[in-house]
Amino acid sequence: MADKVKNLDELFVDTLKDLYDAEQQIVKALPKMIDQANSSDLKQSFKEHLDVTHRQIDRLDQIFKELKTTSKGKRCVGMEGLIKEGDEVMKEAADPMVRDAALIGAAQKVEHYEIAGYGTARAYAQALGHQNFAKMLDQTADEEGQADKKLTMIAEGHINAKAKTK
Questions:
Q1: What is the CATH number of the domain that holds 18?
Q2: Which of 5, 67, 73, 163 would staple 10 via disulfide (CB 3.0–4.6 Å)?
Q3: The whole model's pTM is what?
Q4: What is the DSSP letter of 165?
Q5: Which helix (H) or strand (E) holds 37?
Q6: H/E run at residue 94
């Protein structure tokens, strides 16, 4: 926030800009995660989430257009830190299954961060009377929750057990 936020309208836009930058960072990070993943179902999950992320960015673009404002001007330092942490675990895990387990953990941290961010933005939208935006943001939060559950299923289904035996 370069300027002081004066009201909930400005806080809402600032939050959306933060989420937009977070999604842009994820679009850049997911191809690396796909390359580093060993498990075919984990690779597929990351590929599917990359497609979903593009649709989420489109939703945010629609909100910015309707608000007659821009998505530019905000760096999501929280996401930057989570992605940096994910990069570190990819480098530290020598065994492919241990790396997959670490990738899932890093991705779930990202999902939880996004769920919190979209929930906050949805609450602001509702308070401001933007019910259509609230529905769009709720849809994105649901998608993030589904991605998190899918990662849990993959981890508990076989990755963690295989990583444990290493």
A1: 1.20.1260.10
A2: 5
A3: 0.94
A4: T
A5: none
A6: none
